[in-house]
Design brief:
The chain is of the alpha+beta class. Helix content is 60%, strand content 13%.
Length: 148
Amino acid sequence: ERKNGEQYVVVQTVAPIRGLNGEIERFVAINHEITELKEMEQAFREQSEELELLNRILRHDVRNDLNIILGWAESLEETATGEEEEKLERIRSAGQRAVELTRVARDIAEAISGEEEPELHPVPLDDVLTTEVKNRTAAFDDAAIELH
């Protein structure tokens, strides 16, 4: 505590001072004030918690809206014909991919926050690439993507 009553944080290193005979005669203490660093760490923690809350709320709201879209698309599929069915399938596929992206965003946020260890497992690259090519060609009529 300072003379004015203000609290502060220090890191203290204490080292022995030895005499000619090798015995400890006294100690010396070196203080390094880290009050500002500790305040910045606390502000960072609070900001991280606020961002995590915002992230959760946004993911939840986006998933809710996507589920509404997917529900409407499913109900329209019952009466759709021909070209309408194809368009509804594109809507449904895009909606499902977006829902999956919210899951990926959650996993990334958890990995960054260090709250949980990410669940890692091998993924066949050819399956991922085939799926992505299919998604892109479905989303863009003029897309011509080839894998070699």
